[in-house]
Amino acid sequence: MIVLSSAYLFWPMFAHVLLVLAVYMLLSKWRVAAVRAGKASVSQFKDNLAEPADSLAAKNNIANQFEVPVLFHIACIQLQLFDAVTILPVVLAWLFVASRIAHATIHLTSNRVMWRRRAFIASLLLTVGLWAYLALDLALG
Fold first, then answer.
1. Residue 97 and residue 94: Cα distance in Å, rounded?
2. pLDDT, tens digit (0-9, with 9 covering 90-100), for 111-136
3. Which of 27, 65, 84, 132 lies at a 20 to 30 A Cα distance from 42?
4. Of 24, 32, 25, which is closest to residue 52 (Cα–Cα)?
5. What does the alpha-carbon distance between residue 61 and residue 44 come to, in Å, rounded to a whole number?
């Protein structure tokens, strides 16, 4: 396999970071709107125990972005450190980002659980694929 520059894995990681930042901005926008509409008070966010229904999906999606995606980022960094960046992990990484965008879009719009679950499972399997590729690359040296 032809080893690529580690920068090839930086870009999907960066794209995921942009997704997370976009969801944070949406969460902030929805919280401000809830306060302005009288559906929530600023004090509700002090201990964050009572999230308004309007922003709950965004809050939950933020939490989702720090579960499986953490394993994705670690795998990408390990692939970079071990000079194991080839076309296969780059494709898997971009597919992971696409699945996370799909998951977030579903979660923040229709919130159809079966569709969201499929996007989640795809992202999980793609992460497993990255780790399996890394393990195989290291084992075969």
1. 5
2. 999 999 999 999 999 999 999 999 99
3. 65
4. 32
5. 19
